[in-house]
Write a structure and sequence with these properties.
Layout: E1 5-6, H1 40-50, E2 70-71, E3 75-78, E4 104-109, H2 115-123, H3 139-142, E5 156-167, H4 173-190, E6 193-198, E7 207-214, H5 217-223, H6 227-239, E8 240-252, E9 259-263
Parallel strand pairs: 1-2, 3-4
Antiparallel strand pairs: 3-6, 5-7, 5-8, 6-7, 8-9
Helix pairs in contact: 4-6
């Protein structure tokens, strides 16, 4: 399997390939939360490490010594005020190498998060593709799902939306980029969005992949009607030569530490 290079984002003028934030049309429903452990004495130190010093939506520049096949770190929604990961280390060995930068986080905060989703949020700090051809690989095989571990006692489902695309040659990415950034922050503020990840176009095929992981299908459906999302989707329709949406169920079974990725087969997912 080819080695996959990772890029650390730095500020530059937008030359963009990110889609509108990935949602789904559905009837909304109430959400319920459970209390999570609050470790106020560690919050500022952890946030200082988690917050990027630059705009997390900005795409990277790449060194000539790097592989041309690159991807960005996961972009995780910032946790509600006062909520941190229980026993979260201030430094992780997984990010000790300069070639593996830590995940990015949003300016906006989630309004709430349940205990199992908090555990998933922590595990997704290590989320990455395992093949350079992730845009043309089945979702369950494209990422390191088998490396992500949650507590044995947790049991829950989450809703994943996947966007496979190819940009239209010569399309202006600037307006779409701005709309996508606003739609992303809007989705975080309204709740439910745990992770937003997008790659870079394959240098030969031009294909790309982006994905969102939501606390529930209802959260994704609610985001569908928000004004910034509507504008971003209108712009996306003119910016892509081709695109398709996939939906998956991410499942954690009690007594198991790893996640299962299953095709979405209908009905509600999560809460």
């Amino acid at each position: 399997m080819a080695k996959v290079a990772v890029a650390a984002p730095v500020a530059l003028p937008a030359s963009l390939d990110s889609p509108a934030i990935l949602v789904d049309s559905s009837t909304t429903s109430d959400t319920r939360d459970v209390s999570v452990e609050r470790l106020d004495s560690q919050e500022k130190a952890i946030e200082a490490l988690a917050k990027p010093a630059h705009d997390p939506h900005v795409l990277p520049t790449f060194s000539r010594t790097q592989s041309p096949i690159l991807y960005l770190p996961p972009l995780l929604s910032s946790l509600p005020a006062g909520v941190v990961h229980p026993q979260q280390p201030l430094a992780s060995p997984a990010f000790s190498s300069p070639s593996v930068p830590p995940p990015l986080s949003t300016e906006s905060r989630l309004p709430s998060i349940d205990k199992a989703s908090l555990a998933l949020h922590r595990a997704l700090h290590h989320f990455r593709p395992v093949t350079e051809d992730y845009a043309n690989t089945p979702y369950a095989e494209a990422f390191n799902w088998d490396e992500l571990e949650l507590p044995l006692e947790e049991e829950r489902e989450w809703y994943c939306v996947v966007f496979r695309s190819k940009r239209r040659e010569g399309s202006d990415g600037g307006p779409l980029y701005e709309a996508d950034k606003k739609a992303h922050e809007e989705a975080v503020q309204n709740g439910g969005l745990i992770l937003y990840w997008y790659g870079t176009p394959h240098p030969t095929t031009g294909l790309n992949l982006a994905t969102c992981i939501w606390q529930s299908r209802a959260h994704a459906a609610a985001a569908n009607s928000r004004p910034h999302h509507i504008r971003a989707m209108r712009l996306a329709a003119a910016s892509y030569e081709r695109y398709e949406l996939e939906r998956h169920r991410l499942r954690k079974v009690k007594g198991e530490s790893h996640l299962r990725v299953e095709p979405y087969d209908g009905g509600d997912v999560g809460w």
